[in-house]
Design a protein that fits this description.
single chain; alpha/beta; six-stranded mixed sheet; globular
Length: 336
């Protein structure tokens, strides 16, 4: 009898051990950005809200600073199921599908308000494209707008001719070429050295990168073009998501919606604070002249035509919907 009791207790203990892992699910989530970046801070809050909302049944471990995967590899890692969830800059994958580049199309959305409209116009097409790769789009958060850092004042595109301008993707290289400059690939960590050695004369990037690279050591002017507002996106492997209980899925979707709203606000705060730091260090914040804007408008039209030809029907639908949102009264916009 005692032996039977002992065996029964052991059996109950073993069953409990087997069920324990299924009660608490552990996911890994890579991002290439460090913990000090506002995007990553937002991600940490997002995952904490999921853990709290599920009473600890789903815990997501964030691997920041490319500690698990480099940025170009994150999308493939989530798609293949090596990890459940990830964050990356979607425009990196424009060679797979041109619509991933929509938010880096220069001079298309030159304010946060218009960037929101462009996001609303493009979200469905982006969701469909990612779904074909077994990925579910959760939310996006923009970087600060991209502006021009330069040593001298400029008033027209003529002043840009033959300047060596830092480039970090194909879309920007094309823009530099049309502006009459020479695109030069330079990693963000090498910006200061590239300026000091004469490798580049100018760069197009955000106030965040301007401050992190201490731009005041090598340029005097920042032209606030708000040329484009690129975004990070967060997505989850669809199979991982489908395997979750309905209540957990709903918790993730709510946390994602909250993270998107919070992230856009954080981005605007980041822009204001970094511009203030640049001004404090003597960088003059400039507005482009009408002559310069007119020249850039012609470039925008040409690049939009080229992009639409590559993006096909889906690209045309995005641009049409975006145009409708630009012309629509504010009350008609779907809330984010």
């Amino acid at each position: 009898m005692k032996l039977q009791l002992v065996l029964f207790i052991c059996l109950v203990w073993l069953v409990g051990c087997e069920q324990q892992p299924s009660e608490r699910i552990m996911w890994n989530m890579p991002t290439s950005f460090g913990d000090g970046v506002f995007h990553t801070k937002n991600i940490h809050q997002f995952t904490q809200e999921i853990e709290q909302g599920t009473q600890g049944k789903l815990k997501i471990e964030v691997y920041s600073g490319s500690s698990l995967y480099r940025q170009p590899d994150i999308k493939r890692a989530v798609r293949s199921g090596q990890v459940a969830m990830g964050e990356t800059v979607l425009s990196l994958y424009g060679n797979e599908n041109p619509i991933y580049q929509i938010d880096t199309l220069p001079l298309l959305a030159t304010s946060y308000e218009n960037a929101r409209k462009l996001w609303l116009a493009s979200r469905e097409e982006l969701e469909n494209a990612l779904a074909k790769q077994n990925l579910k789009l959760l939310f996006s958060v923009p970087w600060p707008p991209q502006g021009l850092y330069i040593k001298k004042e400029i008033s027209s595109l003529t002043d840009m001719r033959s300047l060596k301008i830092r480039s970090y993707n194909a879309m920007l290289s094309r823009l530099v070429e049309l502006m009459g400059g020479i695109p030069t690939t330079v990693e963000s960590v090498d910006i200061a050295q590239a300026f000091s050695t004469g490798m580049i004369d100018s760069m197009m990037t955000s106030p965040s990168t301007g401050v992190s690279s201490q731009c005041w050591d090598y340029v005097r002017f920042y032209y606030d073009f708000q040329a484009w507002i690129p975004k990070n996106v967060v997505f989850v492997n669809q199979d991982f998501f489908n395997a979750l209980p309905k209540a957990t899925q709903e918790t993730i979707l709510k946390a994602a919606a909250d993270a998107e709203t919070r992230g856009w606000a954080l981005s605007e705060q980041e822009t204001e604070s970094k511009l203030a730091i640049m001004q404090k260090h003597g960088v003059k914040i400039m507005s482009p002249t009408d002559k310069l804007l007119n020249g850039l408008t012609e470039i925008r039209r040409q690049m939009a035509t080229e992009w639409e030809a590559r993006a096909g029907i889906a690209g045309a639908r995005i641009l049409k919907k975006y145009e409708e949102l630009l012309n629509a009264p504010p009350s008609s916009m779907t809330s984010m």
